[in-house]
Amino acid sequence: MIDAVRYLVDNGIKWRATPSDFPPWPRVYAFFGRWRDTGLVAELHDLLREVVREAEGRGA
Question: pTM value?
C-alpha cells in the first residue's frame, strides 16, 4: 500500500489511474485516508525529512 501511495504522489496521477500491479484504487485510497486521518502520513513525512536533513549534515 505504501508503494502504491508513493507511486500516486510521485507521478501525480489520479486514483482511478492506478496501475494494475497495485491493489484496486478504492482499497489504496481507503488505506491512505485512514493513515491521513490518524496522522500517520504527516508522521512519516516528518521522519523522512529528518533523515534526509541529517544525511546532508543539517539539523533535524
Answer: 0.71
